[in-house]
Design a protein that fits this description.
The protein is built from 10 helices and 10 strands. With about 270 residues, it is an alpha/beta fold. It folds into 2 domains: about 130 residues, 3-Layer(aba) Sandwich (Rossmann fold), CATH 3.40.50.1000; about 120 residues, no CATH class. The protein has a 6-stranded parallel sheet, sandwiched between helices. The longest helix is centred in the N-terminal third of the chain and has 16 residues. The protein is globular and about 55 Å long. The protein starts with 8 loop residues before the first strand and ends with a helix. The model has no long low-confidence stretch (mean pLDDT about 90). Keywords: Hydrolase, Magnesium. It holds the Pfam family Hydrolase. One of its GO terms (molecular function) is phosphoglycolate phosphatase activity.
């Protein structure tokens, strides 16, 4: 893969892509935990730590059904359910899986959750324990991320690499974060004003395909000439591949999925 020459349109995610810090996920989890009764907080911490260690049914790349308290394993490309367990990891019978989850899943951020990155582990844990208001904790975490207490780690060569791309290519930022958060984070990363387009509150994965099609049309490129770059397979990678685009997945852990139009790197710095 020749990162600087193979494509005409580059569509970047923000969280976990342009910066890769993870301590804010724990901060978010702490705020959510504090909403629980004292006697439940230790249970929350235990479950959340097991998730981060990979010793829990809930894991990045899966989905969570809030109403049924069930954990869904998906085919990453089709997003169809292939296996279901309860919270404790007990598998459902396949006929029950087929009858309950027929066809492609639709994610709504409330009842059906795509666990695409580290933000969703504390969220799912909180929902399991009955926390209703997660959004205010999310907003407080975003505010914390632009204080002196939190220091974003800048990806080596990121600004120079994006400036080099921008000389001949179109570069776009598409993120689920809202406009105010994005503005603050881009200034913190010294990337303010560098993108040709910035799409905020994108509601990925629900609206990913819609926005990708709009960008292909706007910049008059074919899917083969575009690449989607992100750390969340469900949000940024699967929809792009389905449209015939290319994709670059940023994932520190080993990835089992292979596809002729998919490249995987440990960090964006590896591509740059």
């Amino acid at each position: 893969m020749d990162f600087y020459n193979d494509y005409e349109l580059y569509i970047f995610d923000l969280d976990g892509t342009l910066y890769e810090d993870t301590s804010h996920f724990d901060y978010y989890g702490k705020l959510l935990k504090e909403q629980l009764p004292i006697e439940m907080q230790e249970h929350f911490t235990k479950e959340y730590e097991q998730m981060k260690e990979g010793n829990h049914a809930v894991a990045i790349g899966k989905a969570y059904d809030v109403e049924r308290d069930s954990v869904l394993t998906l085919d990453p490309l089709t997003l169809k359910v292939v296996e279901v367990t309860d919270w404790n990891g007990t598998k459902w019978e396949q006929n029950k899986v087929a009858n309950t989850y027929a066809g492609k899943l639709t994610f709504d951020f409330e009842k059906m959750i795509a666990i695409g990155d580290g933000w969703w582990l504390p969220f799912v844990c909180a929902k399991h324990f009955g926390v209703e208001d997660t959004y205010n904790s999310y907003l407080q975490t975003k505010e914390y991320m632009v204080t002196d207490q939190f220091q974003l780690t800048k990806t080596p060569g990121l600004k120079q690499g994006l400036e080099k791309l921008k000389e001949k290519k179109q570069i776009v930022l598409m993120t689920n974060s809202d406009a105010e958060d994005v503005g603050r984070l881009l200034k913190e990363l010294d990337l303010d004003g560098i993108f040709d387009d910035v799409i905020t509150s994108a509601m990925k994965p629900t609206k990913t395909t819609t926005f990708l099609n709009e960008l292909l049309s706007k910049y008059k490129v074919t899917p083969e000439q575009a690449v989607s770059i992100g750390d969340n397979f469900i949000n940024e990678i699967a929809p792009a591949l389905e449209l015939g685009m290319n994709a670059l997945l940023i994932q520190a852990a080993d990835v089992d999925v292979t596809h002729e139009r998919l490249q995987t790197v440990k960090t964006l710095a590896d591509a740059l």
